[in-house]
Design a protein that fits this description.
Layout: H1 3-21, H2 25-37, H3 45-58, H4 62-74, H5 79-93, H6 98-113
Helix pairs in contact: 3-4, 3-5, 4-6, 5-6
Length: 115
């Protein structure tokens, strides 16, 4: 597994455990809502992940972008679909999204290199 992918997952897991260990009801409910929002419904999981990726790019959250990229990769989405979603995010978010687009490409390449 790529070092950048491993580092991201290790940090995310460690900090999520730390946050959840405080047993704050509101935070736990937010985490649960986030998890449940990305299950099959009227929209399938792949579509929801692409929507999450677009929203994350427009909001310029690199951690969220990485999370959704990895989930898209795990779900078997093709690079073309991911790039199309990122192109919509760049259109909606404007040129300020381009640095995040660069890092998204870099992280996708890291995901692909693990195959």
């Amino acid at each position: 597994m790529s070092n950048s992918v491993q580092e991201f997952n290790a940090y995310r897991s460690k900090m999520n455990d730390k946050i959840l260990s405080d047993n704050n009801k509101i935070i736990k409910r937010i985490f649960n809502l986030d998890t449940n929002a990305y299950t099959d419904g009227a929209l399938d999981v792949k579509t929801k992940e692409l929507l999450g990726l677009v929203a994350s790019a427009v909001l310029r959250c690199d951690d969220c972008i990485k999370y959704h990229l990895e989930t898209c990769h795990t779900l078997g989405l093709k690079k073309e679909a991911v790039v199309e979603a990122l192109s919509i995010a760049t259109l909606v978010g404007g040129t300020i999204v381009i640095p995040h687009l660069r890092r998204a490409y870099e992280f996708w390449d890291a995901l692909e290199s693990q195959r």
